[in-house]
Amino acid sequence: MSAGFQAVQWNAAKIRYDAILLGLVALYIGGFIAVAAALSPPADVAGWIDLRLKAFGSCAFLMLSAVLAIGPLARLNPRFLPLLYNRRHLGVATFLVALAHAGFMVEWYILESDIANLAGELTSWADYLNFPAGFPFKTLGLIALLCMLVMAATSHDYWLAFLTPPLWKAIHMGIYLGYGAAALHIALGAMQSNRHPLIPILLFALFGAVTLLHILAARKAAAQDAGDAAQDGWLQVGAAGDIPDGRARIVAPAGGERIAVFRDGNIVAAVSNLCAHQNGPVGEGRVVDGCITCPWHGYEYRVEDGCAPPPFTEKLATYRLRLRDGWLEVQTTPLPPGTPASLMLP
Amino acid sequence: MTPSASIILWIVGLYAAAGSIVALGFAAIAAPRLIGPPGNEKPVHTPMTLGARLLLIPGAIIFWPLVLKRWLGEPL
Lengths: 346, 76
Description:
The complex is a heterodimer of chains A (346) and B (76). Chain A contains ten helices and eleven strands. With 346 residues, chain A is an alpha+beta fold. Chain A has two domains: 213 residues; 111 residues, Rieske [2Fe-2S] iron-sulphur domain (Rieske Iron-sulfur Protein). In chain B, 70% of the residues lie in helices and 0% in strands. Chain B starts with a helix and ends in a 5-residue tail after the last helix. Chain B is elongated. At the A-B interface, helix 5, helix 6 and helix 7 of A face helix 1 and helix 2 of B.
């Protein structure tokens, strides 16, 4: 969090994340080219460009799969939350690798003195009816690249505030269109030029794994959202001591919004589970220096009243808590955002 | 190049050219005035580094009609 906008709000975790990401990308691309060149040395310059095309293209698809897998993985197991924290850098890096892949394709056409035909190839409308043998699969790659461009270009916090969260979120759902287009781009490209069976097998295994993770995460969320029955407007949370110190238990009344009940030492507090920044799952975060810290982007809210510390003005809705026969209960009706409602445990 | 390819390239080129002009003005002048600092929805003159302004340019080229609308004082 900052009182103004910077290009990137660097911290030690982000630097470490980006360094590991860069190292893995370099390792994959370097390894791919080295192994492929050793197994089948390219005969000419066009062969080397083709090799780079495949290395960067496959790397971009793997990265895009990782971008989409991180969300459901973190939902299924909190150990993956550190990957979620800087996912936007992974997304921007994915776009840059995909852009390099597209650049090598243009380089290939320039080398073959065929650049004018590239645009013609994409606008040969009759070929779009010749599925899959003659379908211009590069168009699908272009659609995927454009989707990633829009995501990357609007990934800065400024755009979230400018476009408003609902519109920003709707735009960023376009990544699923991009992923589908990228999968089809690779599948058709492989079917039309390289008939090695390993490519479609790996492609659909990856696509299937990402889809399965989304289904599992959605089922878990649906089970949470089914909620528990509240009595007289109060919902049982459990024994306060069972909530790990500095962490939260997420509960939901039947048909209601999720509530995160945090324990910070002998203080308990209940807030809305939706971060005011990007609707991130606040309850999956932890308490740091008396502030609830959202696991997505580190937005902070004071435990006692759900208010962001000055000079920030974001607020979370809070909920009343009570102890009844040793059990902690939360009132299911939210209080106005920023209302002090924490409870001191005896 | 086919005629339809030429038409598409012209349209994309014109959109990007108009977007570039709007985006440069937006990043240089309007961006700090249109929204508040992070966590504050009230528009005030928000401190913004050169790096942040440069990062806004690609998004402003893509969404230049929205940017221009907001710049002229209309809601999105």
